[in-house]
Amino acid sequence: MCEFPLKTYSYSCDCSQNGFSDLHCEVPHPPCWSQPCFNHALCHEEGNNYTCKCLPGFEGNHCELDVNECGSSPCVNGATCIERSWKAHYGFETLLPEHYDPRHAGGYVCRCPPGFTGTLCEEDIDDCASVPCHNGGSCRDSINSYICICSPGYTGVQCSMSTVFSFKSAGNHLSFQSVLVDAEALWNVTLSFRTELKNTVLFRRRSKEAILILELLEGRLQASLNLGKEASVDGASWVLELPKEVADGDWHTVEVALAKGRLLLLLHKQCQGENCGAEAQLKIDSITWESSVHTIVIGSHAEGENSGSFIGCMRDLFVDSQLIIPEEWLNAIVVNITLGCNRCLDNPCKNQATCVTLGQSYQCKCQRPYEGHDCTEGNL
Ligand SMILES: [Ca+2]
Ligand SMILES: [Ca+2]
């Protein structure tokens, strides 16, 4: 490129493209001169060679490779994995800083689905922590939700709705109609009751084909079924009884079910042993269980009939697996039924004691010298 003896001429050598420097382009550039390392890696010279010292999150001889940290699916429970090297997510993803910084481009963050937390979204958030279930209901944690297991007498998502109602005098009753859509469906009534009447009716259910009655006779449960339009004349009938005395003023839960070919009478909860259930095989094939309207009267044999009327409280009434909630008795005939169950109305406290309602129970404040739960014991 240069020639002698043109002394009078000056010259310069352009080495910008060939990797050399100095006046005559005879000195090679240092190895890192060409900036061979990618992704902001440091170039480290060793003699005529170089090595690239990668920032976290990059690899390869020239740090040209973005480590695929999300490749192993480290986030659990359906979380989304976002690598810190994904520049396009900055400014949008709240889990990342606002601006990309190559010095912090290694690793990943997990965006958790609702209900989970933790670095890897491995932790199921305790949705019961806020104690959402009321009235003594117990809480079961679920995914981004909870399930309340309500105490007897309450229902609703948070157990804040009462299912309790009471019959204070003869003739009080509740009457409504139920439509069995599926002819094969079970006839089923489950309820809890509290009474001291020894002989009373709990419910009567009537359809075109059958009459089913649940009552107390001498303090014991009896379910009777009569089939046929003229049931008492030419129909078949069955009676089930349970020996346990239940007219004791405490709550009892009873179920009567008429499945295809079987009649069942069951006492739930406190009852244990073989005396808690009775069953009858109907042994009838010819009856047609048509879809039909059923009339159900709770607390009485029929509207306008006072004999055998129920006096006491009921709660958690289910008809064909549907909970019948007092607040939703819009289409029912309701005769003098009171919501709740005020036990003090039964005058349970003796000897001039004062009765105080405690939820669905009561407490007696005794006059001296009486004592005991109902103030019946005394040191006279
Ligand atoms: Ca990466
Ligand atoms: Ca949870």
Automatic annotation (TrEMBL):
This is Uncharacterized protein. It comes from Pangasianodon gigas.
